[in-house]
Design a protein that fits this description.
Layout lengths: L5 E7 L5 H12 L8 E6 L5 H13 L3 E5 L6 H10 L5 E4 L5 E2 L3 H11 L5 E9 L6 E5 L5 H8 L11 E3 H6 L10 H11 L4 E12 L2 H6 L3 H16 L5 H17 L2 H11 L4
Parallel strand pairs: 1-2, 1-4, 2-3, 6-9
Antiparallel strand pairs: 4-8, 5-9, 6-7, 6-8
Helix pairs in contact: 1-2, 9-10
Length: about 280
């Protein structure tokens, strides 16, 4: 059994489902082979009584919860920045408020850090389900080795955000989370790569993720496209990609995010960006 202490950073806001939230907390407190030392939960603005009841339940049951309540909603990037700032330990695992961590998730990530202390961030693959957790419809696989991750980063996000564990000092060195519409994670990985961070993925599924048409809806529209354009320009300006790659990346994103309706966008994601 590993003894390394680590924090878990998680944010919840008013639109979350209390049942899903409860299941997410259950998966990181009750079924893990290695339990977290601390869970930093940022309540991002006012929430309803059902969500509040879930928090109260876990606060009473576990003394590892550090709950930070914000008076107004500040968005995921800003909420996670607050969570990182208030984490007590160097290693921090990221978790979403409606997904399910697999039992060996933290154990596998801690092992990776133990085997190579130069690593700054470790993520993993995800399975995606609709409705029942056993109804897995796709997998998102990502590269495992540092150079392959950084090559992949030039075209697409190389980590599944809800699966990562990173060193607090490495995140801070890159400037921490910054607010960017649906892309606060990708933006952070780019800046960490520019700082020379050593990156890895386990090659195993670490989190089972809720999905559906709403997820594909979020992956489109003018605001999301502008967010993606910002990242591509950022990489171009920092010589991470050349102009040809920039044009190719933007053309693909313009077609998928601006031209396709949600239904077709979902087909594209499931066939081109996911695996059965």
């Amino acid at each position: 059994m590993m003894e390394t202490k680590f924090s878990v950073a998680i944010s919840v806001y008013e639109k979350e489902n209390a049942v899903f939230f409860n299941r997410a907390l259950e998966s990181i407190t009750e079924i893990q082979t290695v339990k977290p030392s601390e869970i930093v939960l940022v309540v991002d603005g006012p929430i309803d009584d059902e969500l509040d009841a879930v928090i109260t339940k876990y606060e009473k049951k576990y003394d590892i919860f550090k709950v930070i309540r914000l008076s107004k909603n500040v968005g995921l990037g800003n909420a996670l920045k607050i969570a990182i700032e208030n984490s007590s330990y160097e290693l921090i695992a990221r978790m979403d408020s409606d997904d399910v961590a697999l039992p060996s998730r933290f154990e596998e990530q801690l092992r990776a850090f133990k085997e190579n202390d130069k690593i700054d961030i470790v993520g993993g693959d995800i399975s995606e389900f609709i409705g029942e957790e056993k109804n897995i419809v796709a997998y998102r696989r990502v590269p495992c080795i540092d150079d392959e991750i950084k090559k992949y980063l030039k075209k697409r996000c190389p980590f599944n955000h809800m699966s990562v564990m990173y060193k607090k000092s490495s995140v801070d060195l890159a400037g921490g989370y910054m607010d960017l519409f649906w892309n606060e994670d990708y933006y952070l990985w780019i800046r960490m790569a520019l700082q020379g961070a050593v990156m890895a993925n386990t090659g195993t599924v670490l989190v089972n993720v809720r999905t559906g048409s709403d997820m594909y809806k979020r992956r489109g529209g003018k605001k999301y496209f502008q967010s993606e354009k910002f990242l591509q320009k950022y990489m171009l300006n920092h010589a991470m990609i050349n102009r040809i790659t920039y044009i190719e990346n933007m053309l693909k994103r313009w077609i998928i995010q601006r031209l396709l309706p949600n239904s077709l966008r979902g087909v594209v994601f499931r066939t081109l960006a996911r695996k059965k």
